[in-house]
Amino acid sequence: MATKIRLQRFGRKSYAYYHIVVADVRAPRDGRFIERIGSYNPNTNPATVNLDFEAALKWVNCGAQPTDTVRNILSSEGVMLMKHLQGGVKKGAFTEEVAKQKFEAWKAGKDKANDQVVAKLAASKEASAKERLEAEKAANKAKAAQIAAKKAELLAAQEAAAAEAAAEEAPAEAAAE
User: Fold this and answer.
1) What is the mean pLDDT of residues 72-87?
2) Which helix (H) or strand (E) holds 167?
3) CB 8 within 8 Å of CB 21
4) Which of 5, 86, 107, 152 is the most exposed place for a label (fewest CB within 10 A)?
5) Ordered DSSP codes for 120-159
6) Burial of 41 by CB count in 10 Å (0-12 exposed, 13-18 middle, 19+ buried)?
7) pTM, entire model
8) Angle in degrees, 0-180, between the axes of helices 53-62 and 68-77, rounded to the nearest 10
9) What pLDDT digit, counting tens, does each position of 83-136 carry?
């Protein structure tokens, strides 16, 4: 039986997430599968992948063919690298310990790169929030200046009206005397 490791679509319209499954080639995309080995959510930033590493490695070693997208996911998770390293161990190119060291070194570098991406996204989000806050403060200052100008205008108009009223009363008082 020919098997494929492929994505099975779930979710709603325009917001899909996927289960990574091992299925017979003849089965429909969202139909019967042999085993579910993980999930993939492209809607988050960065995309979220939950993968049963051992199960994926077992199926790849058994000859299951991943689709292009799943191959990229498996490569980014290190399954394909581990398969390659296990092949080197079988051929006698290096020992199991050396293979584990190489894999751990690769995984540490990958984790460091992912942490940098997450930190960069958080920093850009923080900078954007700070920029919006500064713009809002500037808008509030401008609005406060407009309100102060209007109040000063009204106060000047009231003082002028009071001065006119006082000027009208003064000649009336002088005429009465």
Assistant:
1) 93
2) helix 96-176
3) yes
4) 152
5) HHHHHHHHHHHHHHHHHHHHHHHHHHHHHHHHHHHHHHHH
6) middle
7) 0.69
8) 130
9) 999 999 999 888 889 999 999 999 999 999 989 988 999 999 999 999 999 999
